[in-house]
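Researcher: First entry.
Model:
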Amino acid sequence: MKRVIKEFWEQIGDVDDVVFLSELEDELQGLLDVVDGYGRDFRVKFSSEKSKVMVVNRSDDERTPVWRLGEK
């Protein structure tokens, strides 16, 4: 996953909006962690207040996940 993010990071340049997709909750959190790490390395800030997550096909009995962006 880190290799994919590195390649992505080299291609994006200056962007306003980015979309990350994942089928699994823990994979998406891992992706957010890697992106946050690269952001710290390249001094790019992501706003957790402006960031949104859309969950598709979640059943009513599943818990609502908590996502962290740059927070431990």
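Researcher: Second entry.
Model:
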Amino acid sequence: MIWPAFSNGCFPMSYFGYLRRSPKIADADQRIQAIKQQQQHVTLFIEQGVRGNVSLHHRPAYRQLLEQISPGDTLYVWWFNEFYSQVGHGYAPLKHLLERGVRIVSIFYPFELMPNDAKSDAILDFIQGQHVAQQHSRLQCAEASRQQLKNHPEQWQAKYKGRPANKEKHQLILQLLEQGLTLQNVAEQARVSLSTVKRVKAKGKPSGHSYRNHTSTTTKKA
């Protein structure tokens, strides 16, 4: 959704606002008003029904914003997390806007990022570093958990042994196979997949025993 600065299109639009509406954002209307109060002539790009974890490249309003915003323009946001769900993911979009010469101003906590500005570059470096640190921490925690499980084989097997077998269902499959039904008929009557029937058959077949291994019945003419 776009709120045009002027309906006649005569005003050179250089002030933009971007925000996302969501049922979880109870004060969305107040945020819209706060952005409108920053400048008399501001064009708002409002994302409707888009989750915060959706990539900016898949957000319709944001794509429209990028098509219109130009070097020297100012972009107002409630806070910088309009661009991301995790702080580390904000580095790329913020850097892209600054490289395009766009000034980014937040309202919730008054702050601004400027193109070709050492302070802004330092903040971006911090965001990038925070992202790398979080990734490293998650990987270390995951590896520590795996090592703990490996040191306790019973816990490892309990976690990765997979879904328990349905013994009653397997017994039914074996009984149907004993009746001479085709694999396909067994699968239909037991309400399981054909691959399940084949797997149970392979595990449950006694030595020297033979089931009917075709999936359909054919009749030969004499």
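Model: Note on the second entry: Residues 2-11, 216-222 have pLDDT under 50 and may be disordered.
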